[in-house]
Amino acid sequence: MAIKVDEFLLKDLEEQLAKCTVDDKKAELTTQIAAKKEDIASKQAGKLVNPYSKSLYQRCTIKDIFGDDQGAWLVGQTLVAGGWVKTGRVQDNGAFVFLEVNDGSFASNLQILVTKELQDPDSCKQTGTCIVVEGEMKAAPEGSKQVAELHATKILHLGHCEARSYPMAKSKLSLEFLREKIHLRCRTNTIAAIQRIRNCLAFATHKFFQESGFQYVHTPIITASDCEGAGEMFQITTLLSKADAIAKEPPLTDERMAELKAAASAVGSKVKGVKDAIKAAADDAAKAEAQAQLKPALEELAAAKKVVEEAEVKRTMVGGIARTADGGVDYSKDFFGTPVNMTVSGQLQAEIYACAMTSVYTFGPTFRAEDSHTSRHLAEFWMIEPEMAFADLGDTMRCAEDYVRYCCKCVLEDCLSDLELLSKMYDKGCIERVRGVVAEPFARITYTEAIETLQKAIKEGKTFENMDVEWGIDMASEHERYLSEVVFKKPVCCYNYPKAIKAFYMRANDDGKTVASMDVLVPGVGELIGGSQREERLDVLTERMTEVNLDLKTYDWYLDLRKYGTCVHSGFGLGFERLINFVTGIENIRDVIPFPRWPGNARG
Question: Which pTM was predicted?
Fold first, then answer.
């Protein structure tokens, strides 16, 4: 509020100066304007202080310092900044050192000048050193890359870095090498830029759906259902926690079982004797005495029976795990009493809420136990899954397109400097690709038309690794990329896929061969989004589930949605990491998630 008042006063002084014709008065107004500008800048600098760094340092982020003019607006102001040293250049025979410092808030580094009187240059120039300083912003010398730099007057913190063992060299490091240094790779320019873009896309996701009237629903990670029907799921069980110890115990012999049962029988006889004594009691005192013995006797009997039951279970165990009569794992002894897994999708649960709240979305981690080492697969990844009641396939395609274009717009507005960095180092076309998504609507093509287009391309000499392109195939990534990169040169919605290659919950079309499904195919990635209109007809859904051998009892709750007030509803799923691949041009999915999980790797 104080700054707004000062800005109003400044504007009034400038208007007075514009109208003034008296030289002395002009000089006075000019002095007042300069002082007011300096006062405003000082207050703005104070406003820059990070709200959660006020107790310790009163630190400003480098992003806020740079503002719109690379820090020129703060020249002459005193402030506190800090971060990790990217490079250090000792100058003028050790008189001072230039430190390029970054705190992760911005792509560019803040240049800090530290004199030898303040700190030994050799003690703070090492890449990886953490430093926080107070100093004055000054205009950089003419010809410098920087517009402004911070001249340190106090060292508030110095965290030394062991130069001999620090693996993050100044030179460019390969992404493969960085995967081996998960705990330090976020200090590199590349991974930091990817993280800022990831953060921007996550925020844009919530903003888009919230502004579009969706409710954010937290769907479970632990589930007894398999949405995809793929069977490649991580199982959750507590049966293994004691299995090794139990397996090492000596087997229970028939003699030992007989002893346990005899002991339980003896306690049973004891209980019967107490009950008989209660019935035969001659007076109230004798009856009370006998009744006092009943409770401990019953507790002893319950304990003896439990020992027998546990022993009988142990006799059926194989490898320390309880078994059923047919030799299968007895999940009734597990924590949930039934087999459960880590979810591959929150879609089915999101449908529950869509059929009550109308428009909902999930945004959370999902898991796939697929033994794949390709650049496209992770064992743990994040999914965005909106579900909409009273919406058909056309509505879903529109929502998917609007969402992707909104996300791309947000990245261009908030992370352009990060995209510029990545375009120089990895994908020169990433900025134009993202701009193209924002500028143009997506193309539309049916699956049948897509197959015909691919067949025509093959006839004209185009070669694919998989040349067996015929109606009914599940298109490979190379086919999807050809359609989006070569044929349309932009994202394309491909819809009405064959029923045989799609999930059970997708609505059957009238032709009996296809379902109301769609995929969004994008350049550089292939399939980005998969969605469909959901099957709302109970009889058709039941028939389809039986056809693919799903246990109807396991999915009775899903069928209930069709029994009790069914409605047309649709939705889609987007792999968040693939969206980041598309936006950044980074090819390997392991490089766009902070802590990647793949077969044989769970570091960090």
Answer: 0.84
